[in-house]
Structures are given as structure tokens and as C-alpha cells.
Amino acid sequence: MAVTEPRPSPAPVLWQVRAGIPRQLYWLLAFLGLVVPLTLWWMGSLSGTDSVFLPSPAKVWARTLTWWTEDALLNDITISIGRVVAGFLVSAMIALPLGLLIGSFKAVQGLLEPLTEFIRYMPAVAFIPLVMLWVGIDESSKVAIIFIGTFFQMMLLVAEDVRRVPMAQIEAAQTMGANRRELVEKVILPSAKPALLDTMRVCMGSAWTYLVVAELVAANSGLGHAILKAQRFLQTDKIFAGILIIGLIGLLTDQAFRLVHRKLYPWAHLKG
Asked: Is the CB of residue 154 less than 8 Å from the CB of residue 199?
């Protein structure tokens, strides 16, 4: 009689690879992921550390309220959002068609991709003197810095999304007589759209990371400017407040992109 070895017990649901978990458990873990760092921050601020180095959450909240009521926080938020959105949109309008061409045609890839790979490793902050010289110090210079920080990365990511379109789809369209334009417009672009929207979401996050750098250029308003000004006066609570506000706006933007993705491409979120 053959002796069968006992099968290993299945791993708990939390540790099964790519397995779903109950929604209540998910939100509980998300709540803990936010509360635990906040608690550690609060405990650290009570440990005798000088508030200049680590202000308490209560002081940061009080500074945020003061900023709102006395220092035009809403105006700073509006200006910063405008700069980020403008830089992002300019990047997208140029990067999307170029990335589509790079991913679709090897000749365009050979012409543009090596140069783009080279430029994208150059830090955006290093371009500030050139931007001030070429563009000036008005609002367009802030948009230009955000554009430089996001454009080259976006173009390469778009090209990679296009290259992921299965060749079988392209070959099937070719057998039915599709020409180059039809292949790009009716096969490659529709198939790549879900990935392209995800790329836009990631690049919007990159745009927000360049906000403070952009507002180094002779800015007199905006969240990044407020953070840099607070640094000069050792207002650490305002620095914390500015960083948290930027993070909150970025989180809301990210969730908006995710919601749009789910509405437009619900099939991409079905459990396989």
C-alpha cells in the first residue's frame, strides 16, 4: 500500500501570492499603515527632542490652521497645482505621440531613444540656470522645470507600454490588410491605452516631486516656496505641514487616476 506524503497546509490568506483578501481586512491594514507611523511620530516628539528638529503632530496641525487662516494656504495650493498640471500636460502632449512612434517604429527608436536615455539621468535642478537664462524667471520657468523632470521619463515609459502590445494582434491586423496608420490608430493605441493611463498616473507623481525644485526659481508663492521660506526661519512645523499637504494632494490625484482607470477599463481589474 503506497504511503502518500501529507500535503503542506496552505499558507494563510495574507501570505498567498497575489491572493485577494476581504475588503474589511484591507481597510484595517490601510488604517494601521497610517496610524502606526503617526503614533511613532507623536511618541518621538514626546521623547524630549527639540521641536525645531521634530515638532509634534499637534504643532504641525496648529501651524496648518494658521497657514490657512493667515498666510493664504489655499492660494499656495492653487498656484502649485496649476504649475504641476501645466508642466504635466505639456509633457504629455509631446511625450505621448513621440513615445507612440518610438514604440511602433524601430527607426524612430534608434533616432530618439539613446538621446532620451542619456538626458533623463541629468538632474532637473541642474537645468535651473539654463531655464532662467532661456525662459526667464516668470511662471513659465516653473512649468519648464516640471516639464524637464517628467518629459523624458514619460516618453520612455510610453514607448515601453506600446512595445508590450502583443505582436499577434499586429500580425492579425496585417493579414486583414491594415496599413501602417491603421495599425497604430486602431490596433496599437487602443491596446496600449490602459497601460498608458497607468503611466500618466506614475508621471503625475513625478511631477509633484519636482514642485519644490521648480519653485526655487524666483517664486513668491506656492507650497514649495513656503517650505523653502520656512527653512530659512527654522519653522520646522511649517515644513512638515507643507510636505504633508503635497503628499495628500498627490495621494488624492493618484486615487483619481485609479478611479478613472477602473471606470474606463473595468476588465483590467477583474480577478484572474
From this structure: yes
